[in-house]
Amino acid sequence: MKVILKKDHKHLGREGEIKEVADGYARNYLIPNKIAIPATEGAIKALKASEERRKKKLEQRKKALEELAKRISQIKLSFSKPKNEDGKMFGSVTKAEVLKSLKSANIDIEKSQLDMPASIKEFGSFEIKVNLSFDIHTSFKLDIIPS
Hints:
The protein is an alpha+beta fold and 147 residues long. The protein has 2 domains: 48 residues, 3-Layer(aba) Sandwich (Ribosomal Protein L9, domain 1); 79 residues, Ribosomal protein L9, C-terminal domain (Ribosomal Protein L9, domain 2). A 4-stranded mixed sheet has the order 4-9-8-6. Strands 2-1-3 form a 3-stranded antiparallel sheet, with no helix packed on it. Strands 5-7 form a two-stranded antiparallel sheet. The N and C termini lie far apart (56 Å).
């Protein structure tokens, strides 16, 4: 089945591209999650008609993401966690905690864009990568210190 991507998708391609995918994948995942629409004749004509607007929108989005990447790269987060007698950390630092801290710094990204393990369970300094789009990546520093 041919579909037109409405959003960038990590494994398929960029917004506006026409891709050939399995029928079940399109019907059960892509279309219900509004990631793609069926590539009918009318949809393809509409896509071609709006090509210029779409290019302009993509350029603006890329510029905004580059600015966001610049802001993210300047951030340094610090978490203080209790430790036990052996010097090991009680608990962990999760993606949700990191996202909450980023949100308080006016940086709004999705959980899937954060490239880190589900949780960090040791003290130290870490470089956390953020994938904003296919070609825009950045990172920030995360310190976990004992309290």
